[in-house]
């Protein structure tokens, strides 16, 4: 599954949706590749960073603008990154990010992932989340096979 993460306001999301959900870059939206980081993986990351229950994190991670229970394999489908994760990740410093990457890989959702690649991805996501918060944008995941 291809999963790319991007930030957008409501107007840009509506335009993307009206256009049939093409890749966000076709609308000039900066995205970060999130291959193998599916909604459940993001929910696990949120659980590692916050006190949210796993069930709640997973239920929120598959939330879409249009569907209650989307078929992520019939994409493209947009899902949202949980607000708790968007708030928590930017507060993680570089040293703690290294530990977080180790813990996230150990949870099984990212089994076999290279530690350095996970740290790089977390660093990019942290930057995207900070930028989105400053501009009052939502963090979305474009899911497509």
Automatic annotation (TrEMBL):
It comes from the Bacteria. This is Uncharacterized protein. It comes from Phytomonospora endophytica.
């Amino acid at each position: 599954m291809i999963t790319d993460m991007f930030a957008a306001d409501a107007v840009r999301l509506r335009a993307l949706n009206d256009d049939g959900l093409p890749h966000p870059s076709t609308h000039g939206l900066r995205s970060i590749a999130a291959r193998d980081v599916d909604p459940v993986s993001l929910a696990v990351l949120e659980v590692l960073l916050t006190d949210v229950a796993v069930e709640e994190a997973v239920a929120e991670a598959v939330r879409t603008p249009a569907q209650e229970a989307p078929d992520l394999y019939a994409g493209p489908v947009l899902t949202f990154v949980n607000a708790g994760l968007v708030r928590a990740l930017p507060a993680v410093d570089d040293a703690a990010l290294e530990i977080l990457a180790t813990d996230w890989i150990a949870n099984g959702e990212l089994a076999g992932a290279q530690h350095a690649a996970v740290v790089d991805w977390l660093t990019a996501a942290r930057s995207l989340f900070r930028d989105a918060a400053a501009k009052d944008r939502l963090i979305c995941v474009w899911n497509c096979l």
